[in-house]
């Protein structure tokens, strides 16, 4: 049971980190130059 909770929490944390990384990289790319992907 504890393992399941840890797995769920880890998945949520990894998803949040992924979204955070995407936002940061998007801001950086926009700042450095015009982003052709957006």
UniProtKB/TrEMBL annotation:
Annotated protein name in UniProt: Uncharacterized protein
């Amino acid at each position: 049971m504890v393992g399941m909770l840890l797995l769920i929490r880890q998945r949520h944390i990894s998803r949040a980190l992924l979204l955070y990384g995407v936002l940061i990289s998007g801001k950086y790319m926009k700042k450095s130059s015009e982003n052709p992907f957006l």
